[in-house]
Design a protein that fits this description.
This protein has helices at about 390-395, 425, 440, and strands at about 5, 10, 20, 25-30, 50-55, 70-75, 85, 105, 110, 130-135, 140-150, 155-160, 165-170, 175-180, 180-185, 190-195, 200-205, 210-215, 240-245, 250-260, 265-270, 275-280, 285-290, 310-315, 325-330, 335, 350-360, 375-380, 405, 410-415, 420-425, 445-450, 455-460, 465, 475. By secondary structure, it is mainly beta. Among the domains are: about 295-445, Sandwich (Jelly Rolls), CATH 2.60.120; about 445-475, no CATH class. The chain has an eleven-stranded antiparallel sheet. A seven-stranded mixed sheet has the order 7-21-20-12-17-14-15, with no helix packed on it. The chain starts with a strand and ends with a strand. Bound molecules: fe (ii) ion (FE2). Fe (ii) ion binds near residues 347, 353, 378 and 384.
Length: about 475
């Protein structure tokens, strides 16, 4: 269903840019009144002599409910630049196509400590490095998980990702992002999605900064269906914020567009700011979301819900219910289940799970082991679950734990049906926690056999059998 938004921009907080509210809306925004052509997309002459330019995020012929495009009305069109050249220096730690030649299959449960932000000057582009991924940006199917550490704003350049959409999860330091649609201020605890092809520049007002990035190839994020939950709950559409038109009309000698294309960086020089869009309309837009707005649902009687209950955004595949990438959070919430092991259960999953921690601690791991800014990867079918300390503490509390609130925490997961290959630099990172497996090694057997049936008797193997011949086994 199409949604149209012509409401006044929403003001959020002091000094924040103005935003438009809603997910998937057809927005309109103009920085100068009258800059949007009122009756058509591409008039012979646009208001104020602007150039009309369409940015397509889906094929022209995609079904209407999936079709994404915006019309940008700008001072000069984005084609006005010198030829693309390979960037020198390159960033050799970015991949957009994963194969035996450039990355490794590894079923080991992996965990990384928080990576230090370097002392030497590095901006968002050079601070970005791939951890793992699957598929290919060229074939428009797959994803990459990146992280970044950076300490300075991008200078006289804009980044453009031709490969896919970025979902950025800042963990340390705010991101002030200028896009062709306007400005977004993003703080840790918020996320931002920068769709394929948008030009943007990242300023770091706090200096040292760190975070996580999921990049998806060939599709876009959607809100998950809510099924029996009903019409409300989880992430509300109105809490997604899109910028309002903002432009600068200035000469910028030597301004560089850095384009990520097939995982390689190219540069194109122009003499003006690319943030020269005076007005725009459409439904292909960057947006941000504050994770504290999330309305979690959970069990109210027994058992631990599957993590899918906390899906914020999902990037679908063509198979119903099978995600290319789900963005799932583990926010503050009450735990109330009766006679239930409340942390996540032990499991093996056909999906692969990359986890990060924005702040606080994660319920299934000791507080000093999985740290904010750190990460873990539990690949397809590799077993995982609470560590020994968490398991023993949970069963020691017993049935009388009562309702408890998990507070002051925000963990998240990128979960994919595609099996990630892992970059060599991630496997060789000095921040790799080589002792991760130790957290489960101490899990001891609690197994006992109880004589629960008086008529039971030992069989010839020494096992005790019940009257109907079945073994009575019990955990203590
Ligand atoms: Fe898991």
């Amino acid at each position: 269903m199409e949604k149209h938004s012509h409401s006044l921009p929403k003001v959020v907080g002091d000094g924040e840019p103005l935003y438009l509210s809603g997910f998937g809306n057809h927005f309109s925004s103009e920085a100068v009144p009258g800059a949007l052509p009122p009756d058509q997309n591409s008039p012979l002459i646009c208001p104020y002599g602007l150039y009309a330019e369409q940015l397509s995020g889906t094929s022209f012929t995609s079904p209407r409910k999936l079709n994404l495009r915006s019309w940008l009305y700008r001072i000069k069109p984005s084609v006005t630049h010198e030829p693309f050249k390979l960037r020198v220096p390159s960033n050799g730690k970015l991949l957009s196509e994963f194969s035996q030649a450039n990355s490794s299959a590894n079923p080991t449960q992996l965990r990384w400590k928080p990576v230090d932000v370097p002392e030497s000057p590095v901006d968002f582009i050079d601070g970005l490095y791939t951890i793992c991924g699957a598929g290919s940006s060229f074939l428009r199917h797959g994803y990459a998980v990146h992280m970044y550490t950076a300490n300075k704003s991008m200078d006289n350049c804009a980044f453009c990702n031709a490969d896919g959409d970025f979902l950025i999860v800042p963990q340390k330091g705010r991101l002030w992002i200028t896009t062709e649609c306007g400005k977004l201020n993003v703080s840790p605890g918020e996320i931002v999605v920068l769709p394929q092809g948008f030009r943007f520049a990242v300023d770091l007002p706090d200096g040292p900064s760190r975070g996580y990035v999921a990049e998806i190839f060939g599709t876009h994020f959607q809100l998950p269906d809510l099924g029996p939950i009903g019409a409300n709950g989880l992430a509300a559409p109105r809490d997604f914020l899109t910028p309002t038109a903002w432009f600068e009309d200035i000469t910028r000698p030597g301004y560089t567009i850095v384009q990520k294309f097939g995982g390689e960086l190219f540069t194109a020089v122009q003499d003006f700011s690319p943030f020269n869009v005076v007005a725009w309309h459409g439904n292909y837009v960057p947006y941000k979301y504050n994770l504290s707005k999330f309305c979690p649902y959970n069990t109210v009687l027994i058992d631990h819900g599957d993590p899918s209950i906390n899906t914020v955004l999902t990037a679908p595949t063509d198979k119903p219910g099978v995600a290319l990438l789900d963005f799932v959070i583990f926010p503050p919430r009450w735990l109330v289940a009766e006679h239930t092991f409340r942390p996540p259960y032990y499991h093996r999953n056909c999906m692969s799970e990359f986890m990060g921690l924005i702040h606080g601690s994660y319920e299934a791991k000791a507080a000093d082991a999985f740290l904010p800014g750190g990460a873990s990867l539990h690949n397809c079918m590799s077993p995982h679950g609470p560590d020994t300390q968490s398991y023993e503490a949970t069963i020691a509390r017993g049935n009388d734990a009562g309702p408890t609130k998990l507070a002051g925490t925000m963990a998240f997961m990128f979960e994919s049906s595609l099996i990630p290959r892992i970059c060599q630099w991630a496997l060789e990172s000095p921040f790799m926690d080589h002792d991760y497996y130790q957290c489960w090694i101490g899990l001891r057997s609690h197994f006992t056999v109880k004589e629960t049936c008086p008529e039971s008797a030992s069989n010839e193997n020494g096992h005790r059998e019940t009257g109907n011949g079945s073994l009575m086994l019990s955990n203590e």
